[in-house]
């Protein structure tokens, strides 16, 4: 009887050991750089291009990435509150933000993957397709303008608003003449339907609009901009962004605060790699690294007809 009990205990302990070991293996294998699931907080001005990246990434690997569109202020808070935050921002981390990561004993991995542009749009009925950045800044400072009836932004906490506020040297957008909605699509619709208004948004929303937004995009002009101390006007084209001629260009970053070799690392590498950079190039933005082109040189050319 005692022998039977000993055998039973031995079998039971062995069973527990196997189950615990399997459970540990499942946890360890739950996520890697190319497998598993992760949430990525995305600046709402960059959402279209990140959707394209995720679609291709998920079709190539056993991974699932959930994109959460938020304003810049909300992303920063979410990045620090999450246990393993991954974010896409239109700027690098500040010294204060890096200190918070240091307190959590995490060294964030930062990947620059593209250069975007803040653009101004006007109603198609407006024949003037030029705008002086100095005049926009002065309007935001409360000065009157003969050309600008009103400025229209997306979310008041967005990166676009923060960028322009910083440029104008103000803490918040003025109550008079400056308006804000919730999305970039709302900005496009409002400008398309209202003459004299100037919309301020991310370039990506114009280069990759949803099918239902195309009719509204067709009713707006993208304005060429003259820098505050400049003499010429430049359109937000890839070439002008690459040559640093367009005055409202901004670099884009993936901030990986996971603290381990997880899916955030794999996704950042993909976006910064050859395929991801080709997606950026096709979108109308400027990739951080221009994808190479293979050129085949032939010593002889055959004229034979087959």
TrEMBL record:
Q: Which Gene3D superfamilies match?
A: Periplasmic binding protein-like II
Domain named PBP: which ranges? 38-273
Q: Which UniProt keywords apply?
A: Signal
Signal peptide residue numbers: none
Under Pfam families, the record lists: PBP_like_2 (PF12849)
Q: Which domain of life is it from?
A: Bacteria
Annotated InterPro entries: PBP_domain, Phosphate_ABC_transporter
Specify the protein name: Phosphate ABC transporter substrate-binding protein, PhoT family
Origin organism is: Flavobacterium fluvii
Taxonomy, top ranks, is: Bacteria, Pseudomonadati, Bacteroidota, Flavobacteriia, Flavobacteriales
